[in-house]
Amino acid sequence: MQHNHKWYFLLIFTSFLSAQIGTVGTPSIGDSIFTSEGNGGIDVTNYGLNIHWDNKTEYIKGEATLNIKSTQKLSAFSLDFHGLKVTSITIDTVPVKFSREQDKLLIVLPKLLEKDTTFILTVQYEGKPSEIQGSVSSGWHTVEKGARALSEPNSAKNWFPCNNHPKDKAIYTFHITVPKEYDVVANGIPQKSVHTKTSTTYHFKTREPMASYLTLIAIGHYDQEILKAKDGTPIYNYYYKGIAKKDKAVFTQQADIMDFFSKKFGTYPFASAGIVSAEGESILAYETQTRSFFGTPTSEQMLAHEIAHQWFGNLVSLDEWKESWLKEGFATYAATLWFEHKQGSSSMEKWVKGTFESLMGIQRLPKENMSKMLQAFEMKEHILSSEEVVKLIDMGTKGKTDEGALKRALTHIPNEGISSYKLDAVFNEVSFPYFDLTFNQYVDFMSIISGEKSENNISFYDLIANLGEAPRDVHSMEQIYSSGVYARGALAMHSLRIKVGDKTFFKILKTYFTRYRNSHANSIDFEAIATEVSKENLDDFFKSWLEDKLIPDMPKYGLYKKNYAK
């Protein structure tokens, strides 16, 4: 039975709960950004997801079995669930009443439960998943050669009912049935598959708890590769059939990166590891637990970042989504640690300067393949005059353009001008590595390239306040994925390392992971551990890096904001 009317929900609750005030789980878990997600009256300990996918209709038919413990006296509670039709719900095999209100599935228990009571909820559902609006990933969706479920930050609810917040982690078992020509990848350790004449059911199981946003289903055509990490952890890699050798080669660093991070952060935290390399989505990478997901091609930097998430974000999850610097800033910095390990301290110094300058509005644009970049960002084609092209070249050479090179460059420009999509041959005649532009220069550069005049009224200090927003000043989903969270958060980690020294810094990280293993934490928790381990008062340090409007200077590297205010 399914009812979508608010009045029906109220009728149920006034009938069943009039004498049970305070026994309905709080309608959300209390996140300041995703204010409606989760329920505060329950703890889901296990999810069993049995899903059949029809490649012709794109429908799924699912049965979700949840082992739940009440965290208060409970007579009713909610789960997060979007769109799909619920056909029945039972609790300990007893049918129960339920209703729907937007993305909440509202369930009435057969009787009042005391705190810490366990029960089994089974939800039968079906339909074609619909996209979650205002999310980075769309949840379960069809792709050209199969289907895919990527759930960050709040899209898991479009393919199974869940307590949809990182605070509530659980063990997952997946049973995914697909037409026999398809392969399936999910989180955890692959179990034995069951084959029929027309279908295959794939089984995966996690051994450690996982947040709902880290769940993964990839249906397609994959080749499996089984390796071992240096500590013996099995690595299950899945590559789309036909992947080029050069695109596959980047993943050969996986075991070495895992080993390096294990030494720096503590033992690899899960019973299995691996990756999924999917076809044709080069900008994508997700931290899906035990099986990071990548588009093709990807990079070693991105590989290191996603492997680091197995500690930062997966082993220790977020108390609230506003604390995302604790996973994204940490993972960004972890990738730089890997390259420092491979290439030496000069690599770290180069990264620090480049990252700081990017937060100062410095833009470095490629000289080669400029046309490809413009098309990738869907810039409209524009015809430039010789005079405009000379201005661009002078920006690239900082006004030190060689006359001979300039003459050769101008021979590529017809009398009627040149398309912005055909500037590569012009720029290749002149010697400079890339366009290194201040923010004001970048605005002028883009105005010439696009033919659209831009009024730049923003002050330098307003600009850098926007580019490097304080990592703890996060109030929207867009800010979760901002340069303040990633870049400033990563620089904060490096600055802490400088302040307390290497030995203490890595002891802080190992203590953090030991104390909050398979749980969740926030900035205050991390700061408390840093203070405890270092035996230093770090209040001013953390305030300046995590809360102040402007990013602090970095004197060790001669990096001062005032030097970029031009």
List the SSEs and their pairings.
Blueprint: H1 6-17, E1 42-53, E2 60-70, E3 74-80, E4 85-91, E5 94-95, E6 98-101, E7 104-113, E8 118-127, E9 139-143, E10 146-150, E11 171-179, E12 183-186, E13 189-190, E14 194-195, E15 199-205, E16 216-220, E17 222-228, E18 234-240, H2 245-249, H3 254-265, E19 275-277, E20 285-286, E21 292-294, H4 300-308, E22 316-318, H5 325-343, H6 345-359, E23 363-366, H7 370-376, E24 383-384, H8 386-397, H9 403-410, E25 418-419, H10 424-427, E26 434-437, H11 439-450, H12 460-467, H13 477-480, H14 483-500, H15 502-515, E27 519-521, H16 523-534, H17 539-546
Parallel strand pairs: 1-11, 18-19, 19-21, 22-27
Antiparallel strand pairs: 1-2, 2-8, 3-7, 4-5, 4-8, 6-7, 9-10, 10-16, 11-15, 12-16, 13-15, 14-15, 17-18, 20-21, 23-26, 24-25
Q: Can you walk me through this structure?
A:
The protein is of the alpha+beta class. Among the domains are: 316-358 and 461-564, Neutral Protease, domain 2 (Orthogonal Bundle); 363-437, no CATH class. It is built from 17 helices and 27 strands. The strands form seven sheets. Strands 1, 2, 4, 5, 8, 11, 13, 14 and 15 form a nine-stranded mixed beta sheet that branches. It has a five-stranded mixed beta sheet with strand order 17-18-19-21-20, covered by helices on one side. The protein is globular, with a radius of gyration of 26 Å.
